[in-house]
Amino acid sequence: MADILVGIDIVKTFPVGRGRLSVLKGADLSVREGEMLAVMGASGVGKSTLLHIRGALDRCDSGKVLFDGQDVARLNDAARSAFRNSAVGFVFQFYHLLADFTAIENVLFPARIGRRGAKSSAQERAYALLDRVGLGERLHHRVQQLSGGEQQRVAIARALMNEPRVLLADEPTGNLDTATSEEIHRMLKELNRERGQTMVIVTHDEGLAGICDRVLHMVDGVIRDEGGPLDSARPPGVA
């Protein structure tokens, strides 16, 4: 598999008082097209920051973020927004759904922003995605009427609405109970297999990491080792 998303020597700091806090200290990370990749590590080591930079939600201080060879870290704001809307789908721990809207309205939102295709075809795709994630009977329920697991399913369908090349998920099961988490695990793996959907998942959940094709570990702002799923991991090596 070819690399679709490559981070090279990514550095990111944040202002703290009169100084700056180094969060990413030269992180390198390559993602192969079609793989399901987990990134693990203790809280505060920079996992989410790295994910946000790779998805053009944030900028790095230095380094490169290459998507099909293009350095998205150097795009202007308008081009970065277009890139996010067309090439990347995001799933977050706390869903970030529009509370006053229905499931179908939330899923349609990215297509309306990106003006992707006719209204009828967008609706058909949204219906199909919600049906695929098991919510075909909950299309017109408002967010407040859905359980946490159902809300995360809506968020996943929304992330897939514009057919992104890469799905980036930040602790997608971190706010769910064990049984619901396992349902989300199965669904993500099925989507990866069925669609060849590239996924990068930041997680503390060993069950979720264990079904991924590779598991990377972050320590103090850099990738220290990598391997396969946790139950068959290769010996650590310098990334």
Sum up the structure in keywords.
239 residues, alpha/beta, Rossmann fold, six-stranded mixed sheet, four-stranded antiparallel sheet, 7 helices, 10 strands, disordered C terminus
Distance between the termini: 18 Å
Catalogue the unreliable spans. Answer: 230-239
Residue share in β-strands? 25-35%
- Briefly note the CATH topology name: Rossmann fold
On the 0-100 scale, what is the average pLDDT? 90
Question: Given this structure, which CATH class is correct?
Answer: Alpha Beta
Put simply, the count of helices is 7
Tally the beta strands.
10
Biggest sheet details? 6 strands, mixed
Q: In one word, what is the shape?
A: globular
- The helicity comes to 25-40%
Total individual domains: 1
Computed over alpha carbons, the radius of gyration is: 18 Å
| CATH architecture designation | 3-Layer(aba) Sandwich
